[in-house]
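User: what does the whole thing look like in 3D?
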Amino acid sequence: MKIVLAQLNYHIGNFESNQSKIIESIHKAKAQGADLVVFSELSIAGYPPRDFLEFDDFVARCQIAVYQIAQHCRGIAAIVGAPSLNTGDKGKRLFNTAWLLSEGKISAQVHKTLLPTYDIFDEYRYFEPNTAFNIIEFAGKRIALTICEDLWNVDDIPMYSVNPMDELVPQHPDLIINIAASPFHYNQAKIREEVLRKNALRYQLPIYYVNHVGAQTELLFDGGSLAMNSKGEITHRLQYFEEDTLLIDTDVIAIALKAGSPSKMALIHDALVMGIRNYFFKLGFKKAVLGLSGGIDSALTLVLAVSALGKENVDVILMPSQYSSDHSITDAQDLVNNLGIKSSLIPIQSIYHSFENALQSLFDGLPFSLAEENIQARIRGVLLMAYCNKFGHILLNTSNKSEAAVGYGTLYGDMNGGISVLGDVYKTEVFELARYINQKQLIIPTNTITKPPSAELRPDQKDSDSLPEYAELDAILFAYIEQFKGPEEIIELGFKRETVNRVLKMVNISEHKRYQTPPILRISPKAFGMGRRMPIVAKYLS
Amino acid sequence: MKIVLAQLNYHIGNFESNQSKIIESIHKAKAQGADLVVFSELSIAGYPPRDFLEFDDFVARCQIAVYQIAQHCRGIAAIVGAPSLNTGDKGKRLFNTAWLLSEGKISAQVHKTLLPTYDIFDEYRYFEPNTAFNIIEFAGKRIALTICEDLWNVDDIPMYSVNPMDELVPQHPDLIINIAASPFHYNQAKIREEVLRKNALRYQLPIYYVNHVGAQTELLFDGGSLAMNSKGEITHRLQYFEEDTLLIDTDVIAIALKAGSPSKMALIHDALVMGIRNYFFKLGFKKAVLGLSGGIDSALTLVLAVSALGKENVDVILMPSQYSSDHSITDAQDLVNNLGIKSSLIPIQSIYHSFENALQSLFDGLPFSLAEENIQARIRGVLLMAYCNKFGHILLNTSNKSEAAVGYGTLYGDMNGGISVLGDVYKTEVFELARYINQKQLIIPTNTITKPPSAELRPDQKDSDSLPEYAELDAILFAYIEQFKGPEEIIELGFKRETVNRVLKMVNISEHKRYQTPPILRISPKAFGMGRRMPIVAKYLS
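Assistant: Here's the predicted 3D structure for the full assembly of 1084 residues, as structure tokens:
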């Protein structure tokens, strides 16, 4: 059988675009002589469609698209993903379904059995699990057709009480097809291959795996679709972070690819660039703006944005205050020159003084405090948003994960933006990523990387006045956020009790701030956003 | 058997407070001669604990609290709610458990079977469903102990394939106890009673129902715990929106209470007041501030805040611009006088001019636009936040649901705040609620209610310049948001195609704004927030 793996970038709810992409790929595959072309999970809707699935209208449009696509499946078959109605007398309204389309009609449907409902996944919110297991026969092959999580129940203590492949194996399949929407994080490609390998070896079957590619707001799908033989060796792999299609003859024995994968920083870099690019394209925007402080976070965000959107599409504003150091402007200006982008300079002292005057009668005699620090950050927020509103730009948020974790940022000030580029990148990783970029070419000024981080909202301020050193802070945060360790476990790692308690308290009393911040491009196994759901008005470790 | 229904207000993660409340109630109940005191679902953790459940430390603290509470159960028994570890060889890590504590130890555990995973609920994210069904024998009674949703599978097309009561009935229970955390919306008390009635009649058993009371950020739990006889008549009911306990002798035949419930506006009023009060108390804050514009939204928010926190704890700032009408100030001042609260006046023209000057070179020659409108709203946001930061207040957001729906508001401006009081109240309901309040005493100035709504950000601006009339807008929004109708269905209700398409588009392109707004006190069956999860970068009806 000649099978095309079609790894495409879908746009949630954009049926016109998704449908025409799919139809175009079907015709291309047919021209290549393929028997079958396989698209990823919920390809027609885009993944995740979230509560659009609650609308009959949305589900009906998915159905119509399936029927229309089926018309193009003559002399070739396709497997597409779309929700289907549960017509039974109980259970949730929908199934998450893989549709086999051939001879101009719907030839078979397979519903998803294992519905991930953890981290960023909410599938049991919408879908009824499948309970009927049948092999698909097509082109002389017996296909075990599965959907993403259906192959993932391989832990020692399995999360689900059924394994779809265990049910299908007695029907003697020749191969496994898995259509997926498996989002990226920096370890995910390895985990994914390991999970597929366990299946290949356990069932002694080859696997043809098609993943979603492209960004859906915070979720970054890295693609990396692949074919694996029954020995668990990868024989074909599609591009990461790009649309890609590949024709494979399942009857030809292919050579195993050599192992080896990009570095963590290379993956994060490419994921963030795709995330920015897709966010703008799918919203129909072209141009970004950000505030350039001379510090490393805004510098790195700018470099990534220029890679994603082109230098002609990224503007910056330098907004020094009376507390800005001399190097802030020169470092920022050096970077602007290195990149050749448009910049504007708006000193904020006079606006700051107008706020001081307006508040004088209320604040009379009270010392300079957080209020005055935040006014400066918020003035910058107002200026950047005015620029966006006037010229149709989107503001890029420049906060990093360490700041977002401990609430070291000003709500409605530097926490503004349409999308947060670095909100899942710890400060120590920000430095690492900056050095990774500078390896190829010295773009980010050395002084930006080497000087001590500062918010520059009061004289001689340093981040280390308020926070532990970032190496220590990030290690504690990682143990708490990514590893779910409690205070005693973190103290056992070798950190001081007082520091640990202070950091965890900072994290937990900042939920109200994170609630109101932009979506964050997700590159780690546990990002702030839809995958981490915390009470706000709570008192735990706080 | 003498049973106490203990309807308490828990604080998520505040084990010290929750535990001491529970222990105090146990001792009181014992002094009253009770055999058993019943607390609500997950009472030890507070509901919903959300991703705190992912932390072993959090779950361990729940267990310790259960053991410590058990020490106090001598000569009396208690039923408390807390997560328990799934020690089986598969499934999710936890159960959602009701614990029977007596004779100083844990006498029985019952796990929840039906795990709501829709709207604001995420229970299958954390819990494994129960599959073992056993009656609890206590004090000569055979108790069918169930947890909230366990009694809710009563629809014609049931969502779940099992009914716990069907499994328990063959064991001949004498009564049903249900411990619940069923959040308020304005129809929920009636729905809840109807669901319980179906169970009472179907199984011919009395029901003792204990609900959670109090606000957990956006979720408002109204209490209304009750006892129902096997004829489906309510014989006892606890207070709405207040902590309450009641001793009931199950062997004494009680008279049915008369039907009748508070009006929708009375319910909404009391729910919002509780929501504000609990939000501040549980965060450890006392004082609120808000911007008073002379319009109805801020006026109503202020009146509710004064009811919740006391007039000495609510300050307002009047911030007129060059576009504010004369009546804005006088209407606002009238309300300030009616309430006897502290107000400050900060005209914003001079700050506005300082922004104009700073942006002059960039905006040179371009016409006044949304950018300038938003600058005004954002200046007010900066001033209010400066007040909060300086004096330790929390800013109350005053946006209503109609505005939040169509994005008629300025992000980082009037969309700021710690909590949104009216974000689930449509504009037409805002008027209704204002009139309800004025029925008792004329507090909100008549002119505030009768004048045409305006944002006053440019000369002679009216909401109706940009939006359909609110009666029409709200009807379309209700059909889309609460009823999940698609465009064709809404047009069939009698609205113009062009208006419907325009409104739905406004809703769907505003997801990025709602993502960054404060949590919204939930009073409707479908509120913006954790119960409505929409993609941002999508293209559906937009």
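In plain terms: The two ends of chain A are 60 Å apart (CA to CA). Chain A touches chain B through 98 residues (CB under 8 Å).
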